Amino acid sequence: MSTETPDKEAILIVDDLRVNLKVLVDYLKNTGFVAYVAKDGESAIEQLRYSSPGVILLDVMMSGMDGFETCRRLKVR
Question: Which of 15, 33, 36, 42 is an S-S bond match for 28, by CB 3.0 to 4.6 Å?
Answer without folding.
Answer: 33
